Amino acid sequence: MTVPARTLRTNARSALRADSLIRTALLAQLSAPGGEVWLVSAWVSDVDLVDNADGAFDYLLGEDAPLQCRLSELLLMLAKSGTAVRVVTQGAPANAPFLERLTLGRDESTDLEVFLDQVVHEKTLVGPEWMFEGSMNFTRNGLARNKEKITYSLDDPAAAQAIVDYRHEWTARGV
Known about the structure:
Blueprint (H helix, E strand, L loop, with lengths): L4 E6 L7 H14 L4 E5 L7 E4 L6 H4 L6 E3 H11 L2 E6 L6 H10 L6 E5 L7 E4 L2 E5 L5 H5 L3 E6 L2 H16 L4
Helix pairs in contact: 1-3, 3-4
């Protein structure tokens, strides 16, 4: 059986950008919540992912939907809608605004955990049956400017294995 996958090589001059694929995956997950989503990246910026100025995503983003929806907001929406969200990143000052927004957005209904790991270097976003992995950090430069290679795959066994590996690495150790 062939597993649907696509490798992208992005750069500032190309029309290929990873943010549109990531947006689509996270919005699809929001439309059918459940399972786990893991974001593992040394560097994370709170990038704008959804332009909702025309209200096209109101049905997914809920009442009082934002005009622009950041990565932190999408992850919090997922964590409040029935998807367990796990974030692994370094405790670097550059990541602080993103991490602060996650912390401030939590409430008792939020299934979100953050693990700080000063030696993490992997770059992956994985959910049930899908995965992004490659050279790209989840930053403005990584998504839209740098020359990056990322692979998006619809591979249930590989995604499930990554989630099992991440659980073992971070939740079992309690980093």
